[in-house]
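Handout, tutorial session.
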Amino acid sequence: MASHRRPKQPSRTRVTVLTTAAAAAVALSSQAANAAPSEKPSKDEVKAKVDKLYEEAEHATEKYNGAKEKQEKLQKEISTIQDNVARGQEELNDLRDGLGSMASAQYRSGGIDPSVQLFLSADPDDYLDKASTLDQLSGQQVDALKKIQVKQRELAQQRSEATDKLKDLSSTRTELGKKKSEVQGKLAEAQKLLNTLTAAEKAALAEEEARATRASERAVLGSTAPATGRAASAYSAAQSVIGSPYVYGATGPSSFDCSGLTYWSFAQAGIAIPRTSQAQANAGTRIYSQSDLQVGDLVLFYGDLHHVGFYAGNGQVLHAPRTGTVVRYESINNMPFQFGVRV
């Protein structure tokens, strides 16, 4: 006989939960259907972001340049100290050999006085401190022992200095690696953004830059104030490499970063200036008014002075702008001017 039991009804709580979940699902589906697709950034927005990344990369580049310069300086100093230590050790060995010869002569002439045996000790300081024994030594022996004492102290000091500089070199190399990674990361991020542009957008950006460069060139040609004095040769050298690509950390002769261009150009004129833009800011007399600038003066930009170029006259600069560009003329107003430097 068939069962006539009524089927079990779902509880009111379960119905409420299911109803709420279903309503939420419908609402989410509706929102997803009506949501506007994410808009692709415009050409100008991409350019603004890329310019910011390039500025950050250049800031890191100048830190990289400073660490690299410090590394090279430390390596030279350490090499010099190590050479001095090697020569000093040879001199110390010669002094000890001479003292040994005197002791041998005393032995052959009738035996070594007990005090003379201390001559060959590794610690002559201890012996010299015992002034009561000095009258047992000849003047020649005392002089030899004192020379050994001085030389040992010199070598200990030099070895300590070398150890400190080696530690500094290790931390500098670590900093150098970090800054290099930072630069590369910023450049990769910028390139990723540029890759989102269409070929037409890239061409439009290139044309905009080309027009700006042509305008700057015309302004420079219209300048009536040529470079003079010590800066003339340096500025001429910079003009000779117009069109060379920007490469971070490069100091010529075929590629440059901003401070690398000014550093190289002055070197061609036989004038040594520091490597980084921040250090170049102290390479001469500062000029705070743009109206007082002369062609060939260095011009510094941004609050942290991470960009430098040459003043080219008529409100223009000659510089290595950033990755993806070449040495060229540009308006001084394209960047936040801080001051000029007359080397």
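The second record follows below. Compare its token runs with those of the first.
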Amino acid sequence: MRIRTTTAALGALVLLTGCGAADMTTQASPFANARGARTVTLSVQSWVGAQANVAVAQYLLEHELGYRVDTVQIDEVPAWDALSQGRVDAILEDWGHPDQEQRYVEDKRTIVNGGGLGVTGHIGWYVPTYFAKQHPDVTDWKNLDKYADAMRTPESGGKGQLMDGSPSYVTNDKALVKNLNLDYQVVFAGSEAAQITQIKQFAKERKPFLTYWYAPQWLFEEVPMTEVKLPAYKEGCDADPEKVACAYPHTPLQKYLNADFAEDGGEAAAFLKRFKWTTEDQNAVSLMIADQRLSPEEAARKWVDSHKDTWRPWLS
């Protein structure tokens, strides 16, 4: 989740989401980067959109190309280390990590860009649309303090609550609250799943809330939310994490491959480079996993069965 560096919820995902993504770097598959072996190890991030990518890629690699696929959950930054060292072969959804890109792609050349995922990510602050319709001015950050009392929770210490997800996600929210001089307190739900649960509860009770959230994300279909306009993003405005006072950018999400795997990974590497789908595709699979409680494999199979024209070009 999601973000400059940094999207779970239910059923089969409970082991993957927990309380933020677990750092399992040292538990990566021993088959990763094994020359000549028809095995692939994919890094799976803790948010459901990233899990949807991996589910579909894994299903096709196994059922169409005859590979064994292992998946490893690793926090965003440690995943780059694991990818560089060959403990995983690919990351399918990266939200932009300039420091890691410089170190591993430009300097060490142990990682290569695997191309765009086809999905553009965006992080922002959101309020429920039912509240925005009642109070249209809440969508301008300059008016947020007017509603701080309405957004207060027992966890926010007398201030309005700005709800974030996992502490492992890199966000600018604490700096934004401070630098925009807002009467709010950032409160971490603990994970994407916990944040979704809280948002659903607020919506059920028709309560106002302010939350850090991101697109693409299937929850918008169930709980419509409206973005709060922060000061406009300009290139470099977020360069100093302590001084950030601008909105998050829109980020074309990227895939990254271990450099040796990209060269020697055969059909699997070629397939992952060609893997590219739309926000609607990702949301459809995410919804099946997180809301309809299908297993990732079941969701992938359903999508694959009904989207042959989309994925067949990835194989050749």
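Points raised in discussion: The radius of gyration is 20 Å.
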